[in-house]
Write a structure and sequence with these properties.
about 70% helix
């Protein structure tokens, strides 16, 4: 009976190890894919803004979100558009009149 429990424990350990290896491979594969959309905190980090500042930009309509059910996401194209709009506003504000 002792050998059966040892064999079961070894089998369980091997199964756990295989699951962990598969999860690691999946994570590595996903890390290589470009993101199709960002969560609000991810977008805030990329834009070097606070999360609250990002939500304010969304509320003011300066940054557009894509809804998926109850979740809100920001596309990479929208982050690029937002940065370009900020640069344009910055350069027009600093231009001499």
């Amino acid at each position: 009976m002792v050998s059966t429990s040892k064999a079961n424990a070894e089998r369980a350990r091997l199964l756990k190890q295989k699951r962990e290896e598969r999860a690691k491979l999946r994570a590595e594969h996903l890390a290589q894919l470009p993101p199709l959309r960002y969560t609000i905190p991810e977008a805030a980090k990329m834009l070097r803004k606070s999360v609250a500042g990002t939500y304010n930009a969304i509320k003011e309509g300066r940054l557009k979100v894509v809804k998926d059910g109850r979740r809100s996401y920001i596309t990479p194209a929208e982050t690029q558009r937002y940065v370009a709009a900020c640069e344009q506003a910055s350069s027009s504000a600093s231009a001499p009149s």
